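Exercise 3.2. Students should predict the tertiary structure of the chain below and write it as structure tokens, then compare their answer with the key that follows.

Predict this chain's 3D structure.
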Amino acid sequence: DVYATFKLGMIYRDKESKVYDIDKAIDYFKQAADKGDKDALGFLADAYIYYQKEYKKAYDLLVDADKDNYSICASYADLFYNGYYVPRDYDEAFKWYMKSFELEKTSTIYHRLGRCYFFGHGVKEDKAKAKEYMYISMNEKYKPAIDFYNEFFKNN
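Answer key:
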């Protein structure tokens, strides 16, 4: 079952899980992606980017992928935002973050867009919108958003 394979990948990817194993997560994501699961493809690219630092592998997966899935768009945007394997391009990153946001509003995408609005990366700086987006993400218990909110907004 493709969905069950993807969910196993998510369980092994979770650092809070007692069975955390990024290599097993990647294996399950590959299996599900090979069977057409687009979420798995996006999370596989994410694992290559953030866990294995294999930016070219992530790029090769994403460059020709249909960009009609939130996780694919978000991972593709991350490459541009951070300048991983491609030149850093905040405008291109913001475009793909917005496409991801249009497809599905997740805590991670609220965080990423909030960061763009805060720093004016790819969009006009807007601290109020940044705070709003970080607050939404933070309330969904997304740790990077909590850390960002505490650093930049808690005492302001």
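Discussion points: Residues 117 and 125 are 5 Å apart (CA to CA). The chain has a mean pLDDT of 95.
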